[in-house]
Amino acid sequence: MPTVDLPHGRFHYEDAGGSGLPVLALHGTFGRGRTFAALAERLLPDYRVLAPDLRGHGLTRARGDFGREAFVEDAAHFVEALNLAPVLLYGHSLGGVTAYQLAARRPELVRAVVVEDVGAVTDESAVPEPVLDVTGWPRRFASQAEAVEFFAATPAPEYFLESVVDGELLFDLATMMRVQEGNRGVWWTDWEAVRCPMLLLRANNSFLLGPELAAEMVRRSPGTELVVFDGTGHWIHRAVGTREGPDGCAAAIRAFFGRTTSRRPGG
Q1: CATH tag, 3-133+185-262
Q2: Which residues contact 31 (CB under 8 A, 6 or more apart)?
Q3: What pLDDT shows up at residue 235?
Q4: Where are the domains of the chain?
């Protein structure tokens, strides 16, 4: 996995390769860049997905805090370091908030944004349980079977298991609590400030993005397109075995990016 040195540390990232248009993909809390592997494969050869391990996650080692500004700055530095601007941007959950905040605060870096299953409000006023308490989780497992058994009780076992390497979690539990706390908030100012095209993906049984909030997001940003997926859960991009899954997600992204990149500047 390649790395890039940014102002706050060394960031590992996945690179699907090829000569397609670059897509910067930002994962959610507890994740890694490799979570987008199936999606990246389906977007080839037209799109080249680059997916970093965000600060506090995976193999990345970064200095500093875990507030919103830090994640947005990292994404901006990544785009600049790899000369991706203006980039097509994809963000899931935590990464989705970072995606639309980057587009709002550094519009020259972003061409279009896909936000997967997260809202412009991420605190208790919109999300019943915005923080998953992981303080009692084990950091090490005696075997892979033990890890599989433990994460079987989570909504997406394979997603979490990607962060178990040689029986040890790649993320620190206290750090994950800080990441989640830093992502709580009301972000309407950022959402409404985005001027590039946006696509909002929502799972019909989402625990983070309800239908009322999604409709309000579209109302407050009239150019935003909304696509709702059935039966996929929060992790739309990797919902293997469902009717739509990665194929449906990739099709929606392809259609959106195709319309976006065919527009003339200012059109």
Answers
A1: 3.40.50.1820
A2: 54, 57, 58, 92, 93, 95, 159, 162, 163
A3: 94
A4: 3-133+185-262
